[in-house]
Amino acid sequence: MKTFEEINKKIESRKAVVLTAEEIIDYVDRKGLDAAAKEVDVVTTATFGPMCSSGCFLNFGHSKPKIRMSEAWIDDVLIYCGVAAVDVYLGATQLRHNDPANMYYPGEFRYGGGHVIEKLVSGEKLQLFGLSYGTDDYPRREIRTWFDIHDLNQAIMVNPRNCYQNYNVAINCSNKPIYTYLGLLKPDMKNLTYCSAGQLSPLLNDPFYETIGIGTKVWLAGAQGHVYAEGTQHSPTCERSPNDVPTEGAGTLALTANMKDMKPEFVRGISLIGYGVSLSLGIGIPIPILTPEILKRTAVKDREIMAPVIDYSRDYPNRSGRVLCRLNYEQLKSGEVKVLDRRVEVGSLSSYPKALEIAHLLKDEIKRGEFLLSRAIQALPRSQAMKTLEIREKEE
Amino acid sequence: MITQKLLLHFPQSATEKPIVYHLVKDYNLIINIFRARVTPEEDGFLVLDVTGNEEDIRQGMAFVKSFNIQVNEANKGVRWDSSKCVQCGNCIPHCPTEALYISDKKSRKIDFNSSLCVECLSCIENCPFGACSSIF
Ligand code: SF4
Ligand code: SF4
Q: Is the full-model pTM beyond 0.90?
């Protein structure tokens, strides 16, 4: 048994023993659980993949004369102005003005909110265009100017849902191609897409949120941020394997960090043909090894984590709940799997090499004494299920 | 017999000659065209495999070059930018020839072998990160 304070002391004196969630697997096999739990202080977990429910609050400061923006665009991408005069929210999936979307199907979606966020973090110049109805105290009716992230007072990423604990594997059982947020799925189950870092993924290493909670410090694209709330759609009451690991979506985290401290290679705008734009993010979360039980959970292997295979041509859009089968991440990472007795080629939207790179970067920061751990100030809910949206009349 | 993958770059003026016809007829070459864009208004490009004996290929290419056409063996029409690639693997099931492939099973690193690329362009559509592009 160790305490947060003991672990942080060791980190400060650069004596902490830190391993990645990949390295810990062999380590525990070799040393045995109890001996390993005594030696290891921190296990680093990580993921890199599309996280649609992301965005940022920006504050521009005031022009002379002042404007209270009521509608505005950055690089022709609409930003939300329903907050204070020069505060805005920029969402990752917002399309660029005049993007034909899927009018000429499948649309290309070359540029949007995720790309603007990437450019911001890269320090590139962007164009702001804003309109206002004008007031006595904010008389300006229109503004057009160029800025970069250093000109802003604040650029704070605030992501309502990141780090899905586990995720669907998407396949297409129909006889025509379909374009989804998990990429192009060829007809007749020719390919499938998964999207998780598996054994490296943060919440798969802490299946019941014993150390990760509200207030936990995280590595968000290179910046030190934290979990500010349960993620949207957080639904821990779900099917789990005997090792307690969910076999479907389950838990999620809401994360925030200062974009001025982020590294651009971990904040990447993406274009999903026929679907839209989004943002891929790199996230790392350290797990303090307080007990052997916590360590045991971080030693989870790809083959012990199951993901549901779902038909995105019919069952997903119609919310039928049907699962074709479950596959583990070792099978998925082999490149070819069997679904309903058919051989299917595997693709992925989550990057394992990037996740591994993040787990090592975080490990090095902790070992150098630059990243201290923080105890959660509030636990994440451990039981609650996802609600659905019913379409009803007012009187019902 | 050897097979070589080549990228021919035509200046605006040299597009009227039936070059492929002469390569087949006069130099005994087997031609497999992957992709072409040859229009009178712009520079033209032709990506093809030529199969034949080495001497015939050499002479055929000398003939092509006599029209001021550049023959490029190293550069192909499809490029993969390793600095933009995040190694996700979304392109893998869409590449018909394993030109894009997983070079290391454990770390899942992706690499590109341009000599296997048949310029189908499906990676360009399917790479969300813009790592694959065409020079024409
Ligand atoms: S889809 Fe693009 S980013 Fe992903 S591995 Fe292929 S080339 Fe790289
Ligand atoms: S153009 Fe086609 S063959 Fe060439 S790398 Fe891309 S997907 Fe593979």
A: yes
